[in-house]
Design brief:
- By secondary structure, this protein is of the alpha+beta class.
- 47% of the residues lie in helices and 20% in strands.
- An eight-stranded mixed β-sheet has the order 2-3-1-5-4-9-10-11. Strands 6-7-8 form a three-stranded antiparallel β-sheet, with helices on one face.
- Strand 9 (305-310) and strand 10 (315-318) form a beta hairpin.
- The longest helix is centred in the N-terminal third of the chain and has 40 residues, at 28-67.
């Protein structure tokens, strides 16, 4: 590990030197790539420099204990020695995590799909609430959200909704929300007071950058334009602005109607199609590497749940990490960071365990 850290430290110094060269500043593409690499290495380098300083502090404290006879100075040296040893252990763990392979999609914007599963109108109502939960969470991170497509019900629910989240590192956090979410509560439409169980499915896909080669042949696509339906402004419902794309090889159908312009809706629809095709490609690659991964969308069946929201007991349970929190109201208002942090910690622990095995 430390040989690799020494190499990264040398590379970081090289990057700082390159970035100060005048010709690099005049080449925006090269400058962007170097800045990205420098930004990625900065936290590793900072932790490693602190680690080396702590190791030096340990050596200095031990030397002082050997040479010093004054009891007060010896006590001070012992205190500094213990502090440095504790910090070294912490930094070793931090450095192992920092050196874990990084998901190349972590810095990207995301496209999120929410679909009502088992439970009819109650599932659609819950889908709308989960959409609002993610909206509030995005606001807390200063991210921007933008609806691509929504199939709303007449009672305030959503059979499905697709939206984009634009923000630094959105995928690194939101990817843990993929899966089936289950709700247990007494629906407003239930006169007998019985608790019902409904499900929705959430899929989180990274937005595809222009430099990623996702080939879409024109002959494989059917493009339909139509008038948008549902809520909308004066132009939205009176012009053929909505766009539906059908991709024959994959069977994927995407729809965008939220913009007034057909051109804008077409761009959104193609962005969504690219994200779906990229997600399929990723899954196939993971399967080929024997890293079996379930489909994010699934069927909305109860057996595929990753999280349960129990309203009578005011609790939320994430079944992947056996975490239960009794603050359902706050979570439904977007306070999901504690759950995501716990998922990240569990993911890192699993990767570290696998790395130690190897």
């Amino acid at each position: 590990m430390f040989d690799k850290l020494d190499d990264l430290l040398i590379r970081f110094e090289e990057l700082m030197s390159e970035l100060s060269e005048p010709d690099v500043a005049n080449n925006p593409e090269r400058f962007r790539k170097l800045m990205k690499e420098q930004s990625d290495l900065a936290p590793i380098v900072a932790a490693y420099k602190e680690y080396k300083q702590c190791k030096q502090n340990i050596a200095d404290s031990l030397a002082m204990l050997d040479e010093e006879s004054d009891e007060e100075m010896r006590e001070l040296a012992k205190e500094e020695l213990n502090d440095a040893k504790t910090r070294v252990e912490e930094l070793e763990h931090e450095l192992k995590i920092l050196l874990l392979p990084k998901d190349p999609n972590d810095d990207k914007n995301v496209i999120v799909e929410i679909r009502a599963g088992a439970g009819g109108d109650e599932a659609a109502l819950f889908a709308a609430e989960i959409y609002r939960m993610y909206q509030h969470y995005a606001e807390s991170k200063n991210w921007k959200t933008e609806i691509v497509e929504a199939d709303e019900t007449g009672i305030g629910g959503m059979k499905s909704v697709t939206f984009m989240i634009n923000g630094q590192g959105a995928y690194s956090l939101m990817k843990y929300e993929s899966g089936v979410h289950r709700v247990q509560r007494v629906p407003e439409t239930e006169s007998g007071g019985r608790i019902h169980t409904s499900t929705i499915s959430v899929a989180v896909m990274p937005e595809v950058d222009d430099d990623i080669d996702i080939v879409i042949d024109e002959k494989d696509i059917r493009i339909d334009v139509m008038r948008a339906s549902g809520n909308g402004g004066q132009c939205v419902n009176t012009t053929d602005s909505a766009v539906r794309l059908t991709h024959y090889p994959s069977g994927i159908v995407v729809y965008s109607q939220t913009e007034k312009s057909q051109i804008q809706n077409k761009a959104k629809a193609f962005a969504l199609l690219k994200a779906k095709l990229y997600d399929i490609e990723q899954q196939q690659r993971h399967d080929a590497e024997a890293e079996m991964r379930r489909s994010q969308i699934g069927t909305g069946d109860r057996s595929e749940k990753i999280r349960t929201y129990n309203f009578p007991q005011g609790r939320v349970t994430d079944h992947r990490i056996n975490l239960t929190l009794y603050k359902l109201d706050k979570i439904m208002n977007g306070d999901i960071q504690e759950i995501i942090d716990a998922c990240i910690a569990a993911d890192q622990a699993a990767k570290l365990a696998k790395m130690n095995e190897n």
